[in-house]
Please model this.
Amino acid sequence: GESVGLHLPTLSVQEGDNSIINCAYSNSASDYFIWYKQESGKGPQFIIDIRSNMDKRQGQRVTVLLNKTVKHLSLQIAATQPGDSAVYFCAEKPGGATNKLIFGTGTLLAVQP
Amino acid sequence: GAGVSQSPSNKVTEKGKDVELRCDPISGHTALYWYRQSLGQGLEFLIYFQGNSAPDKSGLPSDRFSAERTGGSVSTLTIQRTQQEDSAVYLCASSLATELYNEQFFGPGTRLTVL
Model:
């Protein structure tokens, strides 16, 4: 039968608040990082990316911060909206010739109206 | 333009049967990836094709899994002698795969259920 529960970390926020989703990555040689959003029944959707030679990048309502010292990545969403409710995954590209991505386990963002 | 498409969207099969899952990447994308996502989990890399280079098969979980990409476009993931633990959503992605820019565009996935 099915697993009981998703066992995903969950972040619950009020509509209009700012959200911060955190991710610890595994490989100090990773040179590229991406945040994806996945809504129920759909494939992951690109949100924002950052290269390892940067520590901050901003998009529309989203900001990604990279701390290579502690191998930590965060996604900040400003003025969170109900449409932001989804599972958010960070992904890292290991250094070298490969372009495969290694994904984290995901965080469920629940926006309360 | 059209995004990545996958077929079928759902597949139910019996243990021991073979299945084929299809992926049509975005036109012009030279790189194609297969991932597996189990219930409530992140994506697990399976295999990666880049142009005419030998594919990176390092993520395939067993020799029952194989994939091919014909003419540098459509890809088929084949699972032989399916087992219940193969039940998952199989996601395909494609990208331009230039050196640093690696935005992967994902299809909607194929949900495989092995009874």
Notes: The interface with chain B takes residues 2-3, 5-8, 31-32, 34, 36, 41-46, 49, 51, 89, 91, 93, 98-106 of chain A (CB under 8 Å). Confidence is low (pLDDT under 50) at residues 1-6 of chain A.
